Every structure is written in structure tokens, then in C-alpha cells.
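INFO  loader      accepted 1 record
INFO  loader      residues=280
INFO  predictor   begin
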Amino acid sequence: MNIWIVEANSGCTLLYKAFMELLIDEDLVSGLLTALNQLTQVEFKGKGIESIDMGGLRWVYVEDKDTGLLFIASATKDVQPEMLRARLNVIKQSFYSEFQNDGKKFKFNGNVEMFKPFKETIDEYYGNWLAAESVTTIAEFFDILGAFQQLFFDILAIVQHKLPELQQERIQRRIEKMFVNYRENDYVKQNAELSKISFSRESGINIITINPSNCDMYVVEKQLINLMKRIVATIKEEIGLIESVKYFVEEGIFDYLMSNITLLKQLNLDRFLLQLFLQE
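INFO  predictor   done
INFO  writer      dumping C-alpha cells
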């Protein structure tokens, strides 16, 4: 698996981490990958590449139009694109958590040297993923974390960027209170991995530091499901079901669900998530 983080407009490589040897220069590859994505967007009217098989490898794209960044992973063709995309989403959220400025949206200032330490973070994730590949339940758990992290990110983006200030404040206060109560729970206090599920207005909800080797994965999944239910219910109560669904569509939540429906079915999350976002 190789990973690029690229500035989409310029093709500038912010970060490249290789776990496979490529026989050509990584900067040339990033330029080609960026150009292919731009060409696809022109031809398909804004729809970029999601995955492509090329040069004997499988390539998966995760694009963030708000920041102008492309997160790209390559792997052998036996690796499912859904798996690569879930891992890229984990890396993306971790990258923003580390490099956002005072809670503001990430903005590239031209200095690529500052991103080099993030390679150690990728190394840590990759080591966990390698260990998980021989244990199906752990591998699935990483996919679950990736899916929930992406959805938490999208939900809070609606609250922070689309709602009027008064509604935004009410919802964020309720989520803050929810997490205060969550941390006060005796079971959570006694479980270090559950305690890693956190919320702040600046960085949102963070679950990507959970170590599945140190916890009951079933319990963690149930906690994530419960938190997701309560946060979505809070939004629906504050702005109504119709407005909520409209914002879920605008933020791309349903696009994400349908693009990853095969993976979500494997994780037994497809029906729960579709009902959660569509029904009262």
C-alpha cells in the first residue's frame, strides 16, 4: 500500500508514504494521478475518480473539495477498493486533526516539510492494519471505525457550516453535554479505549485512536451506534426531519453510503444507517 496526499489544483505532493516499491518517481505519479482526476471531472461534469485499476495496481481516491486535497492509495488488486477507501478516510481525518489551525478548515501554506512527521502516524496505522489482516474481526473493526469517523465528520460539518448560528449553538451544547455524561459513565471510565471517543468544537468527534486489541470490539461498536443515533436525533429535533434529510443529501452522506454499500452490508451497518438518516 502506498499513500499520497496531494494538492489537487497544483498536483503538489504534500506527503508520500510508500510500503511498496515503485519503479518511477512518486512526484511524476502524483502529477499523473491528479491530471487523471481533473480530466475525469471535466468529462463527467464534476465527478472525479473513485477507483481505477492501472499498472497492475488498484488506485483509490478520496477527494475533499473544501480543502482542495486528494488522498490517494495504491495497493495490489486483491485489496478491495472499499477497504482502501475506509483506510484513506481514517488517514484523512487524522491528518486534519493534526494540521488544522485553531479549529479552522485546513489550508495549505506551501510548506511540505511540516507534514513529514505524519509519516509516523501512517506507519502506526499501517502496522495495525497488517496485524488485522490475519484476523477478520479486527479488520472489520477498522472498517467500522473508518465508516463511523467519516459519518461523524460529515454530520458535524452540517452543524458547523450549514446551520444558522443559534441552531448551531444549541446542537453543539447538547452534544457537549452528551459527551460529558458519556465520560462520567463508570464503564467508560474503567475502559481506556472507550475513553478515547471524544468531542470538541474545534476537532469534532474523534474515534481513530481506539486500539481494537485492547477492547471489546462489540461493546465499542454499540457505543458508536448509540452516539450516532443520539447526535442524528438531536439534529432532527432541532431542525426537523425534512430539513435534516436535505442537509444530509447536500453534505454527501447518502452518496457516501451508496458508494460504500457493499462494505456496509458486510459490516451489517447498511440498513441501520439508511434508516437512521431517512426516518424519524
